[in-house]
Amino acid sequence: QVQLQESGPGLVKPSQTLSLTCTVSGGSIKTNYYYWSWIRQPPGKGLEWMGAISYSGNTNYSPSLKSRTSISRDTSKNQFTLHLSSVTPEDTAVYYCAATNMATMSADEYDYWGQGTQVTVSS
Q1: DSSP letter string over 89-102?
Q2: 55-87 pLDDT, tens digit each
Q3: Distance between CA 73 and CA 5 in Å, rounded?
């Protein structure tokens, strides 16, 4: 059973870069045809797909966040990391890492989820 666990700071100041890491156990992030994503949920709003890194290392980002988002991976540690630059209070959300075996931007298609981590952007 694949398990995901987010880690990172719970408080980030405006204009800084938010970095979160997802550690995967029970499966390899290089497993064929799996996509490893970051999805967030701002308070009172729905889930927002941010981007993904594929089993081969290719990345894809939400058009609305593309200019500020990057996702990288460390296969030796079985981890992938989100970097979101120039954050504002509007980036306050619960951030989830998730996995699916299809190339999709729909949160409904994701099979495996981390528990989520609250990130607040505030000075």
Answers
A1: GGG-EEEEEEEESS
A2: 999 999 999 999 999 999 999 999 999 999 999
A3: 14
